[in-house]
Write a structure and sequence with these properties.
By secondary structure, the chain is an alpha/beta fold. The chain has two domains: 116 residues, Response regulator (Rossmann fold), CATH 3.40.50.2300; 96 residues, Orthogonal Bundle (Arc Repressor Mutant, subunit A), CATH 1.10.10.10. Helix content is 40%, strand content 21%. It is built from eight helices and twelve strands. The strands form three sheets. It has a five-stranded parallel beta sheet with strand order 2-1-3-4-5, sandwiched between helices. The chain has a four-stranded antiparallel beta sheet with strand order 6-7-8-9, with helices on one face. It is elongated. The chain starts with a strand and ends in a 5-residue tail after the last strand.
């Protein structure tokens, strides 16, 4: 089985090496870079399966790096942050990150979270193609299309849309979405779901401006409306 390659972007060498040790014990290949300006060249040289990205970096900070990565790649990104302000953490998600982990953290938690995000990127069975009006989600190719126009979505956004399209008009609570997207309980992730859904709405609104595709059911959660042609 091919080993997953994880790019660790962390300027504190002690933390980077600790994470690397735990990942290697679990069979991962790893590369470490410590400067924001080194990330894009490292990705180009050896494309990773996931980027573990610290927010506080010399050169380009993590949010700026995330923004640059998303211009050309939808590799899964987990952000590491020592900032306690929730808005600072969610800013990275607005730029296209899939998850975040707050410092201090357990290295085992980091490995578990990496595995959870990678599970979401595995191809689904070939027959899983979901259609709602002009919106098509192909689980095998991991593509989302609206009227033959490709919609660029992150792995977390793809999984959320897949959940919604599998049961249109069903209301999903935030807790249920956390469990189904992340595969584990994580305090605070309900706000992360909000951020991913906000991003999805923006992308779909451009191509389906006449309908509200994902509706907020106040006090409960979210649902996908039946989409007409």
């Amino acid at each position: 089985m091919t080993q997953h390659h994880i790019l660790i972007v962390e300027d504190e060498q002690k933390i980077a090496l600790l994470i690397q040790d735990y990942l290697k014990q679990d069979g991962f290949q790893t590369t470490i870079v410590c400067h924001g300006d080194q990330v894009l060249p490292a990705i180009k040289k050896s494309p990773p399966d996931l980027v573990l990205l610290d927010i506080m970096l010399p050169g380009l900070d993590g949010v700026a790096v995330c923004r640059e990565i998303r211009k050309s790649s939808f590799v899964p990104i987990i952000m590491l942050t020592a900032k306690v302000d929730e808005l600072d953490r969610l800013l990275g998600l607005e730029m296209g990150a899939d998850d975040y982990i707050c410092k201090p953290f357990s290295p085992r938690e980091v490995v578990a979270r990496i595995k959870a995000v990678l599970r979401r990127t595995r191809p689904e069975p070939a027959d899983q193609k979901l259609v709602q009006g002009p919106l098509v989600l192909d689980a095998e190719s991991r593509q989302v299309m609206v009227n033959d126009t490709f919609v660029e979505v992150t792995p977390s956004e793809f999984k959320l849309l897949q959940i919604f399209m599998s049961s249109p008009n069903k209301v999903f609570s935030r807790d249920e979405l956390v469990q189904r997207v992340q595969g584990y309980d994580y305090e605070g992730y309900d706000r992360t779901v909000d951020s991913h859904i906000k991003n999805l709405r923006k992308k779909l609104l451009v191509l389906i401006p006449e309908q509200e595709v994902i509706t907020t059911v106040y006090g409960i959660g979210y649902k996908l409306n039946i989409i007409t042609e």
